[in-house]
Amino acid sequence: MAINKIQNHALHELVDPFLGFESDSKVRNMITDVAELAFQCLQSERDMRPSMEKVLENLKRIQGENGDTDNTEEVEIPADEVVLLKSDPPPLSPDSVNVNWICREATPNASS
Description:
Largest sheet: none
Helix content: 40-55%
Number of helices: 4
Number of strands: 0
Shape: extended
Structural class: mainly alpha
Distance between the termini: 61 Å
Order of helices and strands: HHHH
C-alpha cells in the first residue's frame, strides 16, 4: 500500500494530518524525503535496498537539512527515581517464573 501511495503521489493519504504535511513546507519536505527512503527500503530485490548504515546517514541528512540538528532532549528525573536506576535490577514481576526447572529423563511406566 505504501509503495502504491508513494508512486501515485498520494503521500498525504499516508500521513497523519496533525503532522502538518499540508500546511508546513518544512514538514512536507521531510516527510517526502523519508517516504523516498522508505520506498528504497521496500524494494523486493536485496541489492536495490540501502544498507542500514546508508539509511541512518540519509535520516541524519534529512534531519540536518531541515535545521533540526540538535535532537537532544533534557529530561528531569526525580532523585528517588535516580536511585532506582542505579540500584540492583528490579524485582521479578509476579508473572515471572523464578523456580528452577529440573529436566528428568522419561521413565517407563512401572505398571507396564
